[in-house]
Amino acid sequence: MSFKEWFQEYTATDADQLPLDSSIIQVANSDDLDADFIEQRIRESAPGAPITKGFCSKCQVLFDNWPTLGRSSMREHDSKPDQDEDGWEYAVARDCSTFELEASTRAGCKFCAFLLQSLKDGKILDTFRKIETRLYHLDEYAMPSLSVQNWGANPSQLLWLNFPGKVCTHCNNGIASSINIDSCFLPASANCYDQQLDTLDIATNWLSTCAESHELCKSSDGTLPTRLISLAGEQPQLVLTSEFPKRPQYATLSHSWGSSNTIKLTSLNLDSFMKAIPIEALPTTFKDAIKITRRLGIDFLWIDSLCIIQDSEDDWQRESALMSSVYGGSTITIAASSSRDSNEGCFLMPPDFNGGLRARISDGGRQRVQDFRNQRAYDLSTFETHLGTRAWALQEKMLPPRTIHFSNRGAFWECRTTIASQHLPDGFPKQLISPLVRRKGKFEWLWPQIVRLYSAANLTFEKDKLPALSGIARVGYNETRDQYLAGLWRGQIEEQLCWRRLNQAPLKRPSWRAPTWSWASIDGGVGWRALQKGILETKYIDVLDASTTIYSHDPFGQVTGGIIRLACSTMAAADSLVFSKSSDEPEAKDVANIVLRAKNQEQECLIQIDCLDDFCQEDNGPIHLLPLLSGRTGLGQREKGPEGWLDMVDEMMIQGIVLRATGIERGEFSRIGCFNFYKNRSFGQEVENEERRCNWTRPKLVSIEHPALVERVVAYEGQDNFVSQKLNIESYNLILNIQVKMSSLIDISHDDFAFTTAKAQAHLTLLRMFCGVYDLFGTIHPLAEMIIKRPYTPTEAEANTNHYLRIAHYRYTLYLDLLVSIRHTPKETWPAPQWDVALMMHTHMLSPVKFANDIASNPRYSSLAGLLDIPLMALQYKLQNIDHLDDRADRQRWQAKYKGIPFDVMQIHAITGQKNIPPRMVLNGMYSRKRFKFPMPAPFSLDLSEAVKRQISFARKITATYPYDPVPNAMLLDSQQRYMKFMNLIRLNATQMPVPALDIDLLWHTHQLTPSNYLPWCNHHLGRPIDHDDTIGQGELGTGLAQTISAWQAVYSEDYLNPSPNPSSHATTPAQTTSASQPSFPPQTGPSVPTQQTPANSSQPSTQASPSRQPIAQPTLTTADKAPPPGLTLNQLNLWNYDVDRQEKHEMAAYRLHQRRSQLAVYDNQLAALGPRPTSLMKRLTDPSTRKTLEANRNTVISQIQQDIKVQDGFRCAWGRGRWPLLVQARGWGYITPTKGEFYREPQASTSLDFPIYAATWYDQNELGYYDYVSGGRGGGSAIEGGGLPVGGGCRRYIILPQVVEEVDEY
């Protein structure tokens, strides 16, 4: 391209479209600069007027006439942003060629020097000069210009230099985005540093100010280094810190050794250095450090090469393990940031350099001071210096409370409170302190940034990869107490195993220094995606065990081996690894193709390998892909439709690692790479067609391990854990939709001491009793109303309930004291708690973690820690023998210890022929509110009275789910399988606690009532203890359930609330039982799960669809649909016909509700298009009448929806009440007497249940615990309540009432 063609294109292109990497700029960048021509232009541009007060005449004129932008002249330095002002006004302040800037810099202008340095910092000075040179030779004398823009409505501004003849309109456009200058408003009285202070005087002032007033910057009191350099005398000398009577103040030096032969402490010169260190033998950096330390008033200095015996491995290992306390305990660290070796020194700033300044300006006649600084001043003075590229320097930067960086940019102060430079010594108005130094936030949040910086840094000795980070790791351990594993932390190991190379090609694998699952095993920068809520939430592995073998004194230093044992849900086997030099992946850096085979099909995938050596290990064991995490990435892209851009489409990803079998032993692997598989991949661009949006992009991977070493990534295949499976790969979609297929957790039914279905039966019976106990607390004797001569009010009932709950809490603590006094006796002889005490104890144990902590941490009860479980079977025995229970021994123990405190709060009587469910209970008058005074009970970690009220709500709904007693064992076994799946879901989705259905709740509660077994079980199988959350908030019900439904569907491919018939392995399946005498029963044909309903107090029904299914077309049941399967008994046929009839009515009602909700959404969209309702009178008068019509129609539809919901509610309740007796009869549990609405069954008679009864969905987000039941009615006041207590033998008769099922004894 000729100069003229280039000029025409350059002139025609808008400045906002000319970033540094544009093709037009790159053409100019290819030119070579003529040094003589540049020098000539600089001399020609020399300022004609002398420099006064540090500025050239052009800069002084600019400051005296600073452009007024919007309301900039009215803002003070402490002004708050005006919400009514947009800001961002901009203007061109002055022309300034780069030649003129350099000429003025040489003459002494501080502002020109600062602008010139900004171009150098952005590495664009040569680009500007090449464009200026081209324009000069074309006789076009356009010059660069300086632009100023308000930073919104804040008291600060942004500056940038434009390309010659161009003006960017915003700081984020064109070349402006490459120049980062900001300027803050300061008071007119602010110091402008007209007289520059000596650098070390500034440093002394920084240190004294920090030591006196910064609370965050206190030095730690850790272990002192063994030796320090004393500077008290004329000649420095080594001293032993063990001889100091008190802790000394000392400085530390952070420096780069370089390749020069630096003076070192050795075993040979140790004695002589203890007497004197020859000052003339010290390199310049050490001499400068001594000078700085003395000027700061500090008598001791620590330099690694002079304070650690360099030829003693033992001394080096011991002292390097103290790095966190050596630097953390220092008064200050002196960093020789720009020195490449020890000979270059600390004072390297060029004479014309300017890294920031203050100037007095006049804006619209108002005077103020503004400072000017590069936004990247911090990084340029710290991380991006030569020392910042050295690995050891990162912890030398993070650990000290304060550091002075001496670089070619001058002195830069950094502590945990402020940062400053010698150019702006009072500090930067905007706090730019690194979170790594300030340690703001949790350590685990900082670790990804630490590893990203550290891994990209350089080391002289490869073996130092872990030791050079050990000081920071020790700080992390002290904060988190987490297990450290060669650069990874046990608490975040799943995400950290997904590390990958960043922005570089693979290198040769270094000598072994870490397991291949650790990023420390390779050279070069690495990183991983830190997990957060909603991002990559699905886990495919469970870490069973992890450990490393340390080399020496330092548990955070070198290692000699490491192992991680994993239980995985799935693995994909691959046949070959092929090198690929090109890829359409934007982040690909020398990736590889891997071939997966399944069902005689092949699929090539892209992976990222860790090291080049991994290509060369042919035929060295099969290769596997192990997925670790999946989910949303937090990115997305928009699809372009015919009417414009549509909603954002979330980017989805599965990430994992690539393993190669070591061949040493079965199940042992080494890592050779990693992969990321994407769906809806976002490249920062919008999508313009459906095809691209739906296609999954080609995946990428990373790699793992050295086969000859003792470290493993094990796919555990034990019976109690996940089974490793080969992934069935047929296409990308199958690769990218990996489903977790759980084999099993440990079968809880085998853990007889902790849990059995018999205990579940006993627990259900106990729940019925507790409901009766709680109800009794709110009542008084019938004579009381005669005495008070007025009705008993709900307020009085509530007060009565609270009184007896406090008594129960008090008696619970007495019961614990009683157990403490007899704890050395056999546990089976301990007294079972009374009913009110059992209610409290039961509630407390349903939070096993809190319960265990309460018992163990209370000196009064700590001797019972790990011993207490709720005695379910003993309590059931008490119920079953309530007529003739002999509890004299328990009474005697109680009365011997607690004289004057009655043993019973209530007396319980089972009267033959009475319909008391539970049997009649009478409160003991001795415990009445007026007669019994008791001290406040000992507090626990939760309010037991309130917890009881919540648990009773659960108990009512659980018993309503099982309205018969005993429950068929097959049903409990089926629910137990679902409970195991539920606990597995907790393990796989640790960040989101799933919501239990009621059948799961019964099993979960029962398991929790044995905390001595439950908590170890949770720790072993789930990795953490789990409490049942009985305090779930109103707003969380719908969201939590929707997430659980989605997670369950993803993991098990079944509907959580309305699963298809799937009899447990313990029951006989329909296919196995089909015969003429015992026909099979069809799957349950109850109603489709209804859409999520609107809270009763909501003014507007929800328009969101339920996560369950809903009809979208008018339903029609065909004759074939209604036809019953062959072989049904008469009772089963009646149930079939009943269900078909109700199903048809329900689907039609649901269809009408769906249609009206759809119409409501249409009205809402139309109203939204009209905008908000006008507020002023005139605008309302002109508001289109369409709005009124739409609002009227919308209100009508809302009213119809609310009515439909009420109809649906009543319909479902009627369904449950009508279906239950038919189900009992169809199952063979009893026989209906049609005229009386009664049925009979023999005691314990039950048959296997072909399908379970499950809670269908949450009914109402507004009230905790309202459920719909496909076959149980609605929970709450109008529910079918649980059906009674087993109180003796004989035939049982059940009476079917409209709302209650009661059980009566007949003898």
Describe this structure in words.
This is Heterokaryon incompatibility domain-containing protein. The chain starts with a helix and ends with a strand. The chain has 1307 residues and is an alpha+beta fold. A hairpin with a 2-residue loop joins β25 and β26 (644-661). It has an eight-stranded mixed beta sheet with strand order 6-5-8-7-9-12-13-14, with helices on both faces. Strands 1-2-3-4-11-10 form a six-stranded antiparallel beta sheet, covered by helices on one side. It has 38 helices and 37 strands. Mean pLDDT is 75; it is low at 581-589, 684-754, 911-918, 1061-1112 and 1229-1307. α22 packs across α29, α24 packs across α25 and α30 (969-988) crosses α31.
Helices, strands, pairings?
Layout (H helix, E strand, L loop, with lengths): L2 H10 L10 H7 L5 H10 L12 H8 L25 E6 L2 H10 L2 H12 L3 H13 L7 E6 L5 E7 L18 E6 L12 H15 L13 E4 L6 E4 L9 E5 L15 H6 L8 H12 L4 E3 L1 H4 L5 H8 L2 H6 L3 E5 L20 E7 L2 E9 L2 H5 L9 H8 L3 E6 L2 E6 L3 E3 L13 H4 L4 H14 L13 H11 L3 E2 L2 E2 L3 H4 L3 E2 L24 E2 L10 E2 L1 E10 L8 E10 L3 E8 L12 E7 L2 E9 L13 E19 L2 E18 L7 E11 L10 H5 L5 E3 L10 E3 L16 H5 L20 H21 L4 H7 L5 H28 L13 H11 L2 H10 L14 H9 L7 H10 L8 E4 L10 E4 L20 H18 L7 H20 L9 H11 L2 H11 L14 H17 L17 H4 L45 H4 L7 H41 L6 H5 L4 H42 L3 E3 L4 E4 L13 E4 L8 E3 L22 E5 L4 E5 L2
Helix pairs in contact: 3-5, 5-6, 22-24, 22-27, 22-29, 24-25, 25-29, 29-31, 30-31, 36-38
